Amino acid sequence: MNSVPNFLSPDLTDSRLSRQASYKMLIDGKSVAAASGKEVQRHSPGHAGKLVGSWPEAGAEDLDRAIAAARRAFDQGPWPRMSSAERSRIMFRVAELILARVDEIALVESLEVGKPIAQARGEIEYCADLWSYAAGQVRGMHGDSHNDIGDNRLGLVLREPVGVVGIITPWNFPFIIASERVPWAIGAGCTVVLKPSELTSGTSILMAEIARDAGVPDGVFNVVTGYGAAAGQPLAEDPRTDMVAFTGSVRVGTQLAELAARQVKRVGLELGGKGPQIVFADADLDAAADGVAYGVYHNAGQCCISGSRLIVHEDVREALLERVLAISRKIPFGDPLNERTRFGPMISPAHLEKVDAYVRAGEAAGAELLTGGAAQSEKGLYYQPTVFQGVRPDMSIAREEIFGPVLSTLGFRHADEAVAMANDSEFGLSATVWSTNLENAMQTIRRVRAGRCWVNSVIDGTPELPVGGYKKSGLGRELGRYGFDEYSQIKGIHVTLGKPQRWFEG
To answer: Rounded to an integer, what distance in angstroms lies between the CA atom of residue 444 and that of residue 194?
Structure first.
């Protein structure tokens, strides 16, 4: 298809594309290649497949070494036995070193994932804040005591680390999602084996190297790279891991949970989403339109908390869509290395085809395509900003996670109808309500079954608030003080003071 005016064609002569980094895994504090010598190569999705990085393709021997290192570091090493002050100091240093390398890490993230360089830079800065917040909260972790259970009895509640944690992260936000999990896990005193996506592993390796440089002991933070069957699944199956935390698809998350259940192993899951954005007639339509566009186009729609379902009051549907379409037709998309770009390419050719198949299915089902609906360039895996109206709740584009820049519009007349449509989903990860009536907004959002919600904004993030899903969107919570609960065991201790009462007087 011919280029449209808002498409920023990638500059294939950009000197930054000459960067072809070769990474090694980090196991027990050492940078190592795969035992097999095999590597995975990554080509930029935004620059006609130019090679930008490579990393080891781990196998069973590599996984065994990483898990053994994490197990040894937990059972025998100093990290779980350090004071919270010592762990906190080292974690603050990690945050400082991330900030010192923002531009370097952001470039890697942009080239591997295809996200705009400005967005990547902001994300890395946010990750430093995640590490810093977790470091501060480490010193606030505590148990409890009960002094009123009898004159000669005292009750203690101790918080202890759960053990060795396998963390599996996806390709769309590799540095952020690792930063939402690793600091809380190691902050609680656990040790970690991180397995990033085979598509975007570079920044995860950089994070582990930074942690090593900051003073995290050997074996506490290990990274193995490669494919899921060889490098991810064993983290759930191996009896030496005490927990597995996974972010990704419902299909894979369910499989990992089944494997872990055979050993009664703890599982944390953040899975798919189909986030509703409910817009009432009294909403600030300019703000709502900007938020709707950001919610669906952020990271090219490759975002589990994407606001891809627009549920709008019929009285303002046309006026809101007019604004959303104007943004969709002007928003700069394309070259990830262009500072003006707001969203970049799809992650892979297969994913672009999947997104396009959903768009074709929407048209075939009778939805009206208002704009977009086509791949954009042969110079990268770009897909146009796409908006549908006339969508029925039973259509696949209204029910299934597309993971692309595709907005499905549904109308409503009454708040009960809007809430029913929002909840008519197997997912419950995120939701937004737009209304200038705060009482209406709060009463509505309280009825929507989703774990991460916004009122008059979308995809805001802060370390203080928990994230997680309802229904098939996952189990458990990350971030905030609740994040440490995921990686903690709670032990109750009864202490008898004085002479204990005899059970049998013989």
So the answer is: 38
306, two tokens: 């994407």
Catalytic residue from among 57, 270, 401, 478: 270
Instruction: Look up tokens 């995860």; give the residue.
Output: 204
Measured distance CA(297)–CA(290) in Å, rounded:
10
- Does residue 304 carry a catalytic annotation? yes
How many other C-beta atoms can be found within 10 angstroms of the C-beta atom of residue 93? 18
Exposed / middle / buried, residue 155 (Cβ in 10 Å: 0-12, 13-18, 19+) = middle
Distance CA 225, CA 57 (A): 6
Q: Is 270 one of the catalytic residues? A: yes
Q: What is the pLDDT of residue 1?
A: 41
Separation of alpha carbons 182 and 190, rounded Å: 9
Q: Say how far residue 94 (Cα) sits from the centre of its chain.
A: 20
Residue 47 is encoded by which pair of tokens? 């620059």
375 in helix, strand or coil? Answer: strand
Print burial letters for 474-484: b (CB count within 10 Å at least 16), e (below 16). Answer: bbbbbbbeebb
Residue 257's nearest CA partner among 166, 343, 183 is: 166
**DSSP labels for 288-336?**
HHHHHHHHHHGGGG--TT---EEEEEGGGHHHHHHHHHHHHHHS-EE-T
Catalytic residue (choose from 303, 304, 401, 478) = 304
Closest to 442 (Cα-Cα) out of 453, 458, 428, 452 = 453
Burial of 416 (0-12, 13-18, 19+ CB in 10 A): exposed
Mean pLDDT, consecutive 10-residue segments, the chain of 506 residues? 76 91 97 97 94 96 97 98 97 98 97 97 98 96 92 94 97 97 98 98 98 98 95 92 95 92 93 97 98 97 96 98 97 96 96 97 98 90 97 97 98 97 97 97 97 95 94 94 95 91 81
Tell which residue, 452, 40, 18, has the closest CA to residue 271: 452
- Distance CA(448)–CA(216), nearest Å, equals 41
pLDDT at 3: 54
